[in-house]
Amino acid sequence: MPKRRARVTRKTKETDIAIELVLDGNGKYEIQSGIRFLDHMLESFSKHSRIDIALTCTGDVDVDDHHSIEDIAIVLGSAISQALGDKRGIQRYGWAIIPMDESLARAAIDLSGRSYLFFDAVFDRPTVSDLSTEMVEHFFFSLAEHLKANIHLEILHGKNTHHKVEALFKSLAVAMREAVKITSNEVLSTKGVI
Asked: Would you kindly state where each structural domain of the chain is located, as residue ranges?
Protein backbone atom coordinates (compact mmCIF):
# COMPACT_ATOMS: atom_id res chain seq x y z
CA MET A 1 0.00 0.00 0.00
CA PRO A 2 1.43 3.42 -0.90
CA LYS A 3 2.14 5.77 1.96
CA ARG A 4 -0.46 8.44 2.59
CA ARG A 5 1.17 11.83 2.03
CA ALA A 6 0.26 15.49 1.72
CA ARG A 7 1.83 18.83 1.01
CA VAL A 8 0.08 22.08 1.91
CA THR A 9 1.23 25.68 1.70
CA ARG A 10 -0.36 28.84 3.04
CA LYS A 11 0.86 32.35 2.36
CA THR A 12 -0.80 35.42 3.83
CA LYS A 13 0.38 38.90 4.77
CA GLU A 14 1.11 37.47 8.23
CA THR A 15 2.60 34.01 7.57
CA ASP A 16 4.29 31.87 4.95
CA ILE A 17 3.97 28.17 5.80
CA ALA A 18 4.81 24.91 4.05
CA ILE A 19 4.17 21.43 5.41
CA GLU A 20 4.86 17.98 4.06
CA LEU A 21 3.73 14.95 6.00
CA VAL A 22 3.52 11.19 5.77
CA LEU A 23 0.77 9.58 7.85
CA ASP A 24 2.41 6.17 7.64
CA GLY A 25 5.74 7.43 8.87
CA ASN A 26 8.19 6.83 11.68
CA GLY A 27 7.79 10.07 13.60
CA LYS A 28 10.60 11.91 11.82
CA TYR A 29 10.39 15.68 11.96
CA GLU A 30 11.97 18.90 10.78
CA ILE A 31 10.06 21.74 12.43
CA GLN A 32 10.86 25.44 12.15
CA SER A 33 7.81 27.38 13.31
CA GLY A 34 9.59 30.46 14.61
CA ILE A 35 8.23 29.64 18.09
CA ARG A 36 10.65 27.41 19.99
CA PHE A 37 8.15 25.87 22.39
CA LEU A 38 5.71 25.16 19.56
CA ASP A 39 8.56 23.42 17.72
CA HIS A 40 9.01 21.22 20.79
CA MET A 41 5.27 20.42 20.92
CA LEU A 42 5.05 19.64 17.20
CA GLU A 43 8.16 17.46 17.43
CA SER A 44 6.49 15.54 20.27
CA PHE A 45 3.28 15.29 18.23
CA SER A 46 5.22 13.90 15.25
CA LYS A 47 7.21 11.43 17.33
CA HIS A 48 4.24 10.03 19.24
CA SER A 49 1.76 10.02 16.34
CA ARG A 50 4.42 8.45 14.09
CA ILE A 51 3.47 11.04 11.44
CA ASP A 52 6.54 12.37 9.60
CA ILE A 53 6.31 16.16 9.51
CA ALA A 54 8.46 18.73 7.73
CA LEU A 55 7.20 22.23 8.48
CA THR A 56 8.55 25.73 7.99
CA CYS A 57 6.86 28.95 9.00
CA THR A 58 7.92 32.54 8.61
CA GLY A 59 5.48 34.63 10.59
CA ASP A 60 5.02 38.01 12.20
CA VAL A 61 6.06 36.78 15.65
CA ASP A 62 7.39 40.27 16.31
CA VAL A 63 3.70 41.23 16.58
CA ASP A 64 2.79 38.14 18.62
CA ASP A 65 2.47 34.38 18.21
CA HIS A 66 -1.23 34.27 17.30
CA HIS A 67 -1.01 34.30 13.49
CA SER A 68 1.75 31.70 13.27
CA ILE A 69 0.13 29.31 15.76
CA GLU A 70 -3.30 29.56 14.16
CA ASP A 71 -2.01 29.19 10.61
CA ILE A 72 0.25 26.26 11.50
CA ALA A 73 -2.78 24.47 12.98
CA ILE A 74 -4.73 25.25 9.80
CA VAL A 75 -2.08 23.73 7.51
CA LEU A 76 -1.49 20.74 9.81
CA GLY A 77 -5.21 19.94 9.91
CA SER A 78 -5.54 20.45 6.16
CA ALA A 79 -2.53 18.25 5.43
CA ILE A 80 -3.71 15.38 7.63
CA SER A 81 -7.17 15.64 6.05
CA GLN A 82 -5.66 15.61 2.55
CA ALA A 83 -3.47 12.59 3.37
CA LEU A 84 -6.50 10.69 4.71
CA GLY A 85 -8.26 11.00 1.36
CA ASP A 86 -11.68 9.31 1.46
CA LYS A 87 -10.78 7.75 4.85
CA ARG A 88 -11.44 4.26 3.53
CA GLY A 89 -10.19 1.67 6.00
CA ILE A 90 -9.20 4.01 8.83
CA GLN A 91 -10.03 3.10 12.39
CA ARG A 92 -11.58 6.61 12.62
CA TYR A 93 -11.54 6.80 16.44
CA GLY A 94 -8.62 7.13 18.79
CA TRP A 95 -8.13 7.93 22.45
CA ALA A 96 -5.33 8.10 24.98
CA ILE A 97 -4.59 9.01 28.56
CA ILE A 98 -1.00 10.21 28.84
CA PRO A 99 0.97 11.28 31.92
CA MET A 100 3.70 13.89 31.92
CA ASP A 101 5.15 13.71 35.42
CA GLU A 102 2.42 15.11 37.73
CA SER A 103 0.10 16.05 34.83
CA LEU A 104 -2.38 13.72 33.19
CA ALA A 105 -4.12 14.44 29.89
CA ARG A 106 -6.96 12.66 28.12
CA ALA A 107 -7.59 12.93 24.39
CA ALA A 108 -10.24 11.44 22.14
CA ILE A 109 -10.67 12.00 18.42
CA ASP A 110 -13.25 11.07 15.80
CA LEU A 111 -12.20 11.73 12.21
CA SER A 112 -15.89 12.21 11.43
CA GLY A 113 -15.81 14.96 8.83
CA ARG A 114 -17.40 17.28 11.41
CA SER A 115 -15.44 19.85 13.40
CA TYR A 116 -15.78 20.18 17.14
CA LEU A 117 -13.40 20.90 20.00
CA PHE A 118 -14.02 20.22 23.66
CA PHE A 119 -11.14 21.66 25.70
CA ASP A 120 -10.78 21.66 29.46
CA ALA A 121 -7.40 22.85 30.69
CA VAL A 122 -6.34 25.70 32.94
CA PHE A 123 -2.84 27.12 32.82
CA ASP A 124 -1.30 29.06 35.70
CA ARG A 125 1.24 30.88 33.55
CA PRO A 126 0.52 33.20 30.61
CA THR A 127 3.45 31.78 28.62
CA VAL A 128 5.65 28.74 28.39
CA SER A 129 8.91 29.98 26.93
CA ASP A 130 7.80 31.90 23.81
CA LEU A 131 4.31 30.32 23.51
CA SER A 132 1.23 32.11 24.84
CA THR A 133 -0.79 29.55 26.78
CA GLU A 134 -4.04 31.19 25.63
CA MET A 135 -3.08 29.98 22.15
CA VAL A 136 -3.01 26.29 23.12
CA GLU A 137 -6.79 25.97 22.96
CA HIS A 138 -6.90 28.05 19.79
CA PHE A 139 -4.31 25.80 18.14
CA PHE A 140 -6.46 22.73 18.81
CA PHE A 141 -9.63 24.57 17.73
CA SER A 142 -8.06 25.51 14.38
CA LEU A 143 -6.68 21.98 13.97
CA ALA A 144 -10.11 20.41 14.59
CA GLU A 145 -11.76 22.85 12.21
CA HIS A 146 -9.43 22.13 9.29
CA LEU A 147 -9.02 18.43 10.00
CA LYS A 148 -12.82 18.21 10.21
CA ALA A 149 -12.59 16.15 13.37
CA ASN A 150 -14.16 15.97 16.80
CA ILE A 151 -11.37 16.46 19.32
CA HIS A 152 -11.82 16.25 23.08
CA LEU A 153 -8.88 17.28 25.28
CA GLU A 154 -8.73 17.50 29.06
CA ILE A 155 -6.17 17.92 31.78
CA LEU A 156 -7.36 15.52 34.47
CA HIS A 157 -4.85 16.90 36.96
CA GLY A 158 -1.51 18.64 37.04
CA LYS A 159 0.41 21.67 38.25
CA ASN A 160 3.26 22.49 35.89
CA THR A 161 2.10 24.43 32.82
CA HIS A 162 4.82 23.00 30.57
CA HIS A 163 3.84 19.47 31.57
CA LYS A 164 0.13 20.14 31.00
CA VAL A 165 0.66 21.52 27.50
CA GLU A 166 3.02 18.72 26.54
CA ALA A 167 0.66 16.06 27.91
CA LEU A 168 -2.13 17.49 25.73
CA PHE A 169 -0.01 17.34 22.57
CA LYS A 170 1.25 13.83 23.35
CA SER A 171 -2.19 12.47 24.22
CA LEU A 172 -3.62 13.82 20.98
CA ALA A 173 -0.67 12.35 19.08
CA VAL A 174 -1.30 8.86 20.45
CA ALA A 175 -5.05 9.18 19.80
CA MET A 176 -4.30 10.35 16.24
CA ARG A 177 -1.96 7.41 15.65
CA GLU A 178 -4.85 5.07 16.47
CA ALA A 179 -7.49 6.97 14.49
CA VAL A 180 -5.53 7.11 11.20
CA LYS A 181 -4.54 3.43 11.39
CA ILE A 182 -5.79 1.28 8.50
CA THR A 183 -7.86 -1.56 9.98
CA SER A 184 -10.14 -2.61 7.10
CA ASN A 185 -10.98 -1.77 3.50
CA GLU A 186 -14.31 -0.10 4.17
CA VAL A 187 -15.50 3.31 5.32
CA LEU A 188 -16.42 3.13 9.00
CA SER A 189 -19.78 4.88 8.76
CA THR A 190 -23.37 3.74 8.24
CA LYS A 191 -23.63 6.60 5.72
CA GLY A 192 -20.92 5.06 3.57
CA VAL A 193 -18.84 8.24 3.68
CA ILE A 194 -17.00 10.16 6.37
From this structure: 5-179
Question: d(Cα 99, Cα 61) in Å, to the nearest integer?
Answer: 31
Q: What pLDDT is recorded for position 192?
A: 81
Beta strands (DSSP E) in the chain are 5-11, 15-22, 29-32, 52-59, 93-100, 103-110, 116-120, 127-128, 131-132, 150-157
pLDDT of residue 1: 73
Name the residue among 112, 86, 81, 49 with its Cα closest to residue 185: 86
Burial of 35 (C-beta count, 10 Å sphere; 0-12/13-18/19+) = buried
Which ranges of the chain have pLDDT less than 50? none
Neighbouring C-alpha atoms within 13 Å toward the C-beta of 32:
7
CATH, range 5-179:
3.30.230.40
Pick the closest to residue 125 from 137, 114, 134 (CA basis).
134
pTM confidence score: 0.97
For Cα atoms 191, 189, 107, give the angle at the middle one, nearest 5 degrees: 135
